[in-house]
Amino acid sequence: MENNSGIQISKKSFFSSVAILFVLMMAAGILTYVIPAGSFEKILVDGKEAIVPGTFAFSGEGGYPVWRWFTAPVEVLWSSDAVTVISIILFIFIIGGTFCVLDKSGMLKYIMNGLVKRFENSKYKLMAVLVLFFMLFGSVFGIFEELVALVPIVILLSYALGWDSLTGLGMSALAAGFGFAAATLNPFTLGIAQQLAGVPAFSGLPFRIAVFAICYGMLYSFLYHYAHKIEKDPAKSSVYEEDKSQREKYASGAAIETLANEQYLGRTVKIFGTALALVIAYVVCGFFVPALSSVSLPVMAVFFLAGGLIAAKESRYGGRIGKDFVSGVGGIAPSALLILMAMSVKLIISNGGIMDTILYYASEKVSQMGPYAAILMIFGLVLMLNFFVGSGSAKAFLLIPIIAPLAELVGLTGQMACQAFCFGDGFTNMLYPTNPLLMITLGVTVVSYTKWFKWTIGLQLAMLAVNAAILMLAVFIGYGA
Questions:
Q1: At a CB cut-off of 8 Å and minimum separation 6, what does 325 contact?
Q2: What is the pLDDT, as a whole number, of residue 242?
Q3: How far is CA 9 from CA 2, 108, 173, in A?
Q4: How many whole angstroms separate alpha carbon 151 and alpha carbon 193?
Q5: How many Cβ atoms from other residues are within 10 Å of residue 465's Cβ?
Q6: In the 3-class helix/strand/coil scheme, how is the chain assigned residue by residue?
Q7: Among the four residues 140, 158, 266, 432, which has the most C-beta atoms within 10 Å?
Q8: What is the C-alpha separation between 33 and 271, in angstroms, rounded?
Q9: ∠ at Cα 223 (220, 227), nearest 5°?
Q10: Beta-carbon neighbour count of residue 394 at 10 Å?
Q11: What is the CA radius of gyration of the chain?
Q12: What local confidence, expressed as pLDDT, does residue 224 receive?
């Protein structure tokens, strides 16, 4: 499972994540025997199922068969999420293989050394720009999964700047997740939620820009202080031993190992850079042409693979590209099991018939509350549901038809309900182990889930408190009235 070049998932990280996900799968199965099964009637809206409020009925059937708790990771492959899951797994295999080839060619080290020389006296400015870049993509375009391909590059850059893999993850994946939650124009959460709630599309922008600025400031401050701490004493990093070899390999000032082909590396950088530019351009176009975003992962995989292999061949590094590519796929292959297990939790809950029951009980509570308590209850409901359903758009179709009318009954506006939805949907994407994107992201690093949780939980709790305060403020000022 260990790999000397490219992306790798450590044995410790893999087995600790498997153990956590297995416990969650068993817990989900037990819940199907504790919570009575029931369902709402559903209709198709824009090709997705939406709940019809007021149609809930208990089914009288409960308990998902125990043997199917264990087969759930396989059943995911022919469930309603099968296409998404298979696309994600193939995408990360391509990333793993391509990065191994690029690493063997010496191109990645060449890029890192060049960036360090350019930004050695302004690396915290570079950090600020990177965090803003990833947050904006999540906030404006709703781009999240598609940025996984850039995460390994940022992690290598973090090594080169004297930081660790946690800092690299914070500047990329965590920033994208926080930007996704601090939505300004995000079409997949905010856009759909406002449409279903009957709120003018992308209205209330000044308030959301202020929210984005607050979240950006909190994340950058967190990363700035952490990076300063481990820069002074690298041993204070909780992943000091895990990424020691990679840190030494890409450290500032280290010589390029493949000096024999250095004269070709400048050209390979241009080729691969062009491929990345095409990926980013395609993602941006997908914001304006929804049909493009529906096939974004396969198209991006083609760009990434073609650019990487052509660049590696032009580098003339003397290795066997096919063999190195397969080696890279092998290094990241175990993360496929983590994705299947993460998706299994949702499968067990859904097939066990208790998802709608949870929604029904929660909505009954909301209808009996005042506006301040109700907005926090809606926030909490989305937080809870996000543990089981990672897709923001899918949650919008499940929740908004229920909570929007309830919000009006207790004196809240649709705008407030949408803001609570975005907060509950987004931030914990990079905290819950049931989110496949988080498991993918950790799978391309040496960071175990337990160490990630310990590193981010303080920031997440602070963000939780700030989110609650912002929602209370929204009620106080009558946001959207």
A1: 97, 98, 100, 101, 309
A2: 82
A3: 7, 18, 16
A4: 29
A5: 10
A6: CCCCCCCCCCHHHHHHHHHHHHHHHHHHHHHHHHCCCEECCEEEECCEEEECCCCCEECCCCCCCHHHHHHHHHHHHHCCCHHHHHHHHHHHHHHHHHHHHHHHHCHHHHHHHHHHHHHCCCHHHHHHHHHHHHHHHHHHHCCCHHHHHHHHHHHHHHHHCCCCHHHHHHHHHHHHHHHHHCCCCCHHHHHHHHHHHCCCCCCCHHHHHHHHHHHHHHHHHHHHHHHHHHHHCHHHCCCCCCCHHHHHHCCCCCCCCCHHHHHHHHHHHHHHHHHHHHHHHHHHHHHHCHHHHCCHHHHHHHHHHHHHHHHHHHHCCCCCHHHHHHHHHHHHCCHHHHHHHHHHHHHHHHHCCCHHHHHHHHHHHHCCCCHHHHHHHHHHHHHHHHHHCCCHHHHHHHHHHHHHHHHHHCCCCHHHHHHHHHHHHHHHHHCCCCCHHHHHHHHCCCCCHHHHHHHHHHHHHHHHHHHHHHHHHHHHHCCCC
A7: 158
A8: 56
A9: 140
A10: 18
A11: 23
A12: 97
> Which stretches of the chain drop beneath a pLDDT of 70?
1-10, 12-13, 46-48, 146, 250-262, 287, 290, 293-294, 318
Residue 458 buriedness (CB in 10 A; 0-12 / 13-18 / 19+)? exposed
Written as six digits, the tokens of 99 are 């990065």
**Tokens 């080839």 belong to residue:** 101
Query: Are the C-beta atoms of 328 and 312 separated by less than 8 Å?
Result: no
Distance CA 1, CA 8 (A): 7
pLDDT at position 294 is 65
Q: How many CB atoms lie within 10 A of CB 157?
A: 25
Instruction: Give, to the nearest 10 degrees, the angle between helix 449-477 and helix 414-426.
Output: 170
φ and ψ at 369, to 5 degrees? Answer: -110, 165
Show the tokens assigned to 293: 């975003």
Per the listing, tokens 């590519």 go with: 325
The encoded tokens of residue 87 equal 């696309």
pLDDT in tens, 92-112: 788 888 888 888 887 877 777
Q: How far apart are the first and last CA of the chain?
A: 56
Identify the pLDDT of residue 146: 67
Closest CA to 437 of 454, 452, 422: 452
Question: What pLDDT does 426 receive?
Answer: 82
Condensed to tens digits (0 to 9), the pLDDT of residues 117-145 reads 788 788 999 999 999 989 988 898 777 77
User: Which two three-digit tokens encode residue 8?
Assistant: 């790798």
Residue 11: both structure tokens together: 């044995």
Instruction: Indicate the residue type of 9.
Output: I
Measure the CA–CA gap between 304 and 279, rounded to whole angstroms: 7
- Whether 251 and 162 have beta carbons less than 8 Å apart is answered as yes
